[in-house]
From TrEMBL:
Organism of origin: Glycine max (Soybean)
UniProt protein name: Uncharacterized protein
Mapped RCC repeat ranges: 31-85
Entry-linked PROSITE patterns: RCC1_3
Keywords from the named record: Repeat
Organism domain of life: Eukaryota
Length: 93
């Protein structure tokens, strides 16, 4: 068994967890994603390749254009997040 990881103080329930080769994703009921583990190849979505030993929220878009995530998946060297298209920021007709 590996080490125990403390989760951030969440105000909503966890609805999904995805595990890659050496990283983990967590999705909350309000559409937030947290990642931790090995950051090589940018698989944590944190904008760097640094390892994270504790869950850190992944930011999608700017503060004004918050994106609600409805699904997550992780593979050996990648992470995926599925956005709620009806509520995603954008422009056009």
């Amino acid at each position: 068994m590996g080490d125990t990881v403390s989760l951030p103080n969440l105000s909503t329930k966890v609805v999904a967890i995805a595990a890659g080769e050496a990283h983990t994703l967590l999705l909350t009921g309000d559409g937030r994603v947290y990642s931790w583990g090995r950051g090589i190849l940018g698989r944590l979505g944190q904008g760097s390749e640094h390892d994270k030993h504790f869950p850190v929220e992944v930011k999608f878009g700017s503060e004004e254009d918050s994106v609600r995530i409805v699904g997550i998946a992780a593979g050996a060297y990648h992470s995926l997040a599925l956005a709620d298209v009806d509520n995603a920021p954008g422009s056009g007709t």
